[in-house]
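task queued by scheduler; priority normal; single chain, no ligands, no partner chains; default sampling; output format set to structure tokens
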Amino acid sequence: MRVFVTGAGGQLGHDLVNELAGRGIEAVGSDIAAEYSGIQDGTAVTKAPYVQLDITDREAVLRVFREVKPDAVIHCAAWTAVDAAEDEENRDKVYRINALGTSYIAEACREADVPMLYLSTDYVFNGKGETPWDPDCTDYAPLSWYGQTKLLGEEAVRKLLSRYFIVRIAWVFGLNGKNFVKTMLRVGESHPEVRVVMDQIGTPTYTPDLAVLLADMIVTDRYGTYHATNEGGYISWYDFTCEIYRQAGLSTRVIPVTTEEYGLSKAARPENSRLDRSKLVRAGFTPLPDWRDALSRYLSELKAGEEA
């Protein structure tokens, strides 16, 4: 089986190519850079086939698909800088990547008659209330341009394909690239205290754990829309930060503040990012491990990388 993975230079794409290759599944990674631009850690992604691809170029997408001849596609590539997406000079680019680019990938999947797995986000919802969002809920109302363009990507997948997975995730962290954990560690090591939002609630997603699930999914025909974050209950960014510092052995004081008090974000964030993951179990998939365990493994990986 040959699986084509877009966004191989990102946090998830890197781990996903590794996971697929480790299972003996032929993985072909792609990204916009001429050569693989992720971490050079000697793992499978740096040895797997890599193809440069600008997903906003429809003809290039169709050409690459005809050359690679994948049996399935996992579409990780996206604009994920939520605040920068609000800037007027970036809005068209964000649209072309998240909406048009996704539609081109879906179109190529339709032409090749292969299934597609699309990574989406909790930002497609309005973030109101306290009830966890069901994956089949259609009460969409994105608060940001990022969320709107990701929803447009979802709609393109549903319109063009009958064999697809849409997997919504939240609060992603992994080795390859920037994320909240790395930021908090850096701030905690250089500041005596940090202000962190306590009224946005969700659950973190560790990319190696998510990669296991996606690799499980792509070899099945259990198509549909799913939510996938780590287990362990719903928490705030404040709770997450406290646990990061506890596990990292940092004494940095964490001050809880409301989103309004924090007031530094250009894009509106959903307060309710609780994603109901129960559909995974009903479909026969294994849930992701507890986020605390995931954080522990991640900090160990970071330490090992620093000592290498």
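post-processing summary
- The mean pLDDT is 94.
- Residues 2-177+204-231+274-289 form a domain with the Rossmann fold fold (CATH 3.40.50.720).
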